[in-house]
Amino acid sequence: MTPSQPRLECRVLDERLRDVMPAYATQGSAGMDLRALLDAPLTLSPGDCELVRTGLAIHIADPNLAGMILPRSGLGHKHGIVLGNLVGLIDADYQGELMISVWNRGQRPFTVEPLTRLAQYVVVPVVQVALDVVDDFTPSERGAGGFGSTGAR
Ligand SMILES: O=c1ccn([C@H]2C[C@H](O)[C@@H](COP(=O)(O)OP(=O)(O)OP(=O)(O)O)O2)c(=O)[nH]1
Ligand SMILES: [Mg+2]
């Protein structure tokens, strides 16, 4: 832990999580893994999407931070287990349980065992902005070009 590391309040909503709290796996890890709080194995057929409990609530509180729930690359690439919402965005004022929308986008059934590390939680900086309504912008180099306007190579 570095001295400047922000501290976030976390409620443990299920005692099963006590011994397996999320942690950074290495010094340079960007995310900490979230486990599936399940009473029994959960088999997802191809195309199935289920909301899975994590047993944890994290109150970020600081509006200049947000949480993100992201897939784990091994599960996503090897097994097609990703998120039903693609990315979960956790508001700084959210105090409820972190939930994982798990989606089997693959072609084979996949069984999630209880307390499997299913997704990862990343805290990112956020800037809240104010919008000034204008009629026109000062021209930029890109202008309204997008969606491949700069070419493929
Ligand atoms: O994967 C996720 C995504 C969201 N949330 C929680 C935290 C987040 O702060 C809240 C609302 O998420 P979001 O704003 O993305 O959903 P919404 O459909 O816009 O709901 P709301 O009307 O409550 O904002 O739901 C999760 O637990 N897991
Ligand atoms: Mg919302």
TrEMBL record:
Domain dUTPase-like: 21-151
Pathway: Pyrimidine metabolism; dUMP biosynthesis; dUMP from dCTP (dUTP route): step 2/2
Residues annotated to bind substrate: R72, S73, G74, N85, L89, I90, D91
Swiss-Prot/TrEMBL keywords: Hydrolase, Magnesium, Metal-binding, Nucleotide metabolism
EC numbers for this chain: 3.6.1.23
Any single Pfam family the record assigns to this protein: dUTPase
Highest taxon above the source species: Bacteria
Catalytic activity: dUTP + H2O = dUMP + diphosphate + H(+)
Needed co-factor(s): Mg(2+)
InterPro entries: dUTPase (IPR008181), dUTPase-like (IPR029054), dUTPase-like_sf (IPR036157), dUTPase_trimeric (IPR033704)
Cross-referenced CDD domains: trimeric_dUTPase
SUPFAM superfamilies membership: dUTPase-like
Classification via PANTHER family: DEOXYURIDINE 5'-TRIPHOSPHATE NUCLEOTIDOHYDROLASE
Function: This enzyme is involved in nucleotide metabolism: it produces dUMP, the immediate precursor of thymidine nucleotides and it decreases the intracellular concentration of dUTP so that uracil cannot be incorporated into DNA.
Family: Belongs to the dUTPase family.
Protein name: Deoxyuridine 5'-triphosphate nucleotidohydrolase
Record organism: Halomonas cibimaris
Lineage of source species: Bacteria, Pseudomonadati, Pseudomonadota, Gammaproteobacteria, Oceanospirillales
Gene: dut
